[in-house]
Amino acid sequence: MSEWQVIPENHPALPGHFPGKPIVPGVVLLNYICAAMRREAGEGMHCSGFPSVKFLSPLLPGEAFAITLDFGAGGRVRFVCKTEDRIIAQGSMQIETAAGVEP
Q1: Pairing relation of β-strands 5-6 and 45-55?
Q2: In Å, how far are 6, 9, 30 from 61, measured between CA atoms?
Q3: Which of 11, 38, 54, 65 has the greatest CB tally within 10 Å of its CB?
């Protein structure tokens, strides 16, 4: 599992998502998941798609979460993103090297 992370309350994607009770947009969470993959697999890797994603619970700004990655065959990486007491999102991503060749 990766280290605990927090998306700050002043993140630029939060205003308007939803006024009065903001939640972290799914695309911001996916960006953090891609960054966690690059930290583990190397900066030469990038995410080329998300064949499967389920958002199961909203993430609030300032709430701590962690990402678990499971690297499989064919450039497929399964992920689980969770807080201390619940799963926020889970699914799989496809990764490739910068040259477009699967690992």
Answers
A1: unpaired
A2: 7, 5, 15
A3: 65
Half-sphere exposure of 63 (CA within 13 A, CB side): 18
- In the block, residue with structure tokens 């690297």: 71
Q: Is 92 contained in some domain?
A: yes
The pLDDT profile of the chain, 103 residues, written as one tens digit per residue, is: 678 999 999 999 888 778 788 999 999 999 999 999 999 998 889 999 999 999 999 999 999 999 999 999 999 999 999 999 999 999 999 999 876 555 5
C-alpha to C-alpha distance for 31 and 28, rounded to whole angstroms:
5
pLDDT of residue 102: 53
Residues 6+ apart with CB under 8 A from 61: 7, 8, 9, 11, 14, 22, 23, 24
Cis peptide bond upstream of 79, omega within 30: no
CATH number at residue 36: 3.10.129.10
Q: Rounded to two decimals, what is the model's pTM?
A: 0.89
